[in-house]
């Protein structure tokens, strides 16, 4: 029902009541003044008119899109490879123990059989001898062929590397081999092509490069 319709209805009811009061029998209600009823109807009409105020539509607060949280930068493989270490021990500890590559297995085998128990610098120097041989042009060009070359390393049996107990010493040998192949640490026996115990010197004209642990290295 609209405001005007409500006002008209109240007015009709008011006048109807006024007529009723005028024609009804005497009672306690005869004391009601007709002018008072008219004023009441007018007051109701004014009240209804004052309600004819446009309602304010609540403002809709726009929803602001939430920005996704910034993701933590993940280091790339290049950044990991370029990592610098303060000690050889840190460089070795940073390597994992996976040895799927054949060259890595051959090099780790040589480190294990020739220098397990030696200082890390001595194990790295053994690895450098094998790598230097593969690069020299005077020995086979493949790391595994260098290790298995006849008459070079006494641990080799029938051209094969014996089975290895894959414990802590072998895991260390794998890590040292990875450091050597990645050239991640400078060996104290740089350019060495031979090594032997202190009481045995390689045949031929060789130059001593370094003495590490129980081994002496030559080029």
Q: Your description of this structure?
A:
The protein is mostly helical. It has two domains: 1-21 and 34-48; 86-218, Cell wall hydrolase SleB, domain 1 (Arc Repressor Mutant, subunit A). Helices cover 46% and strands 6% of the residues. The chain is built from eight helices and three strands. It has a three-stranded antiparallel beta sheet, with helices on one face. Strand 2 and strand 3 (215-218) form a beta hairpin. Helix 1 (3-23) packs antiparallel against helix 2 and helix 6 (120-136) crosses helix 8 (168-181). The radius of gyration is 51 Å and the shape is globular. Residues 11-50 and 52-80 have low confidence and may be disordered.
CATH C-level of the largest domain: Mainly Alpha
Q: Let me know the number of strands.
A: 3
Major sheet size, sense and barrel closure? 3 strands, antiparallel
The global form is: globular
For the biggest β-sheet, the strand order reads 1-3-2
Distance between the termini: 111 Å
Topology at a glance:
Layout: H1 3-23, H2 34-50, H3 77-81, H4 88-93, H5 102-115, H6 120-136, H7 143-148, H8 168-181, E1 194-197, E2 208-212, E3 215-218
Antiparallel strand pairs: 1-3, 2-3
Concise overview:
The chain has helices at 3-23, 34-50, 77-81, 88-93, 102-115, 120-136, 143-148, 168-181, and strands at residues 194-197, 208-212, 215-218. With 219 residues, it is mainly alpha-helical.
Keywords:
mainly alpha, Arc Repressor Mutant, subunit A, 8 helices, 219 residues
